[in-house]
Structures are given as C-alpha cells and as structure tokens.
Amino acid sequence: MSPRPDQETRTAAKARITGLKQTRDQAHEDAEKAKADADEAMWQSIAAELDAGTLLQADVCEATGFSRDHVLRRTKKYRTNQD
C-alpha cells in the first residue's frame, strides 16, 4: 500500500483539480453558447428565406429533417409576413 500524501500535497492537488474543472465548465458553457448562436442564425436565415418566398416550409422540412411544426415554432419569432 502506498503512503498517504501529506496535507500540503493534497491541497495543491485539489487546487489543480478545481482549476481543471473550471476550465472544463467554461469550455462547456462556451460550446453551449456557440450552439445557441448558430441555431438562432440558422432560424433567422430560414425565416428570411420563407418571408422572401424563395422556398416553402415543406422545403425547409425536407432540407433539415425537422417537422413542419418544429420549423413553424422556431421561425415564428423571426417572421415578418405571417399569412
């Protein structure tokens, strides 16, 4: 059985682990924000295409694999000419 580390060694190791956890948490937070930003940009662009009349909602569904209801819900806040 290996000897137990002294308190100073343990405290230093815990501090390193805390730093690693903070770095990981920040990376996860940044990734979630990037995903949310990408989603918003995509749905805004899709809404603009729908508003311009360059495609139908069915075309969006075919291209994205999302249901019509999902496309409607996600683009609704960005649409300017709701029919």
Verbal overview:
There is one protein chain. The protein is an all-alpha fold. The protein is 75% helix and 0% strand. The chain contains 3 helices and no strands. The chain has helices at residues 7-52, 57-64, 68-75. The protein is rod-shaped and about 70 Å long. The relative contact order is 0.09. The model has no long low-confidence stretch (mean pLDDT 95).
Using the alpha-carbon principal axes, give the shape.
rod-shaped
How much helix, percentage-wise, in residues?
over 70%
Could you state the oligomeric state of the chains shown? single chain
Any low-confidence stretches, pLDDT <50, length ≥5? Answer: none
User: What is the N-to-C order of secondary-structure elements (H for helix, E for strand)?
Assistant: HHH
Average pLDDT confidence is: 95
- Proportion of residues in extended strands: under 5%
Number of helices: 3
Largest sheet: none
Assign the structural class, choosing from mainly alpha, mainly beta, alpha/beta, alpha+beta, or little secondary structure: mainly alpha
**What separation lies between the terminal Cα atoms?**
75 Å
Radius of gyration: 24 Å
- DSSP strand count: 0
Brief summary of the model shown:
The protein has 83 residues and is mainly α. The chain has helices spanning 7-52, 57-64, 68-75.
What's the arrangement of secondary structure elements?
Blueprint: H1 7-52, H2 57-64, H3 68-75
Index terms:
75% helix, single chain, 83 residues, mainly alpha
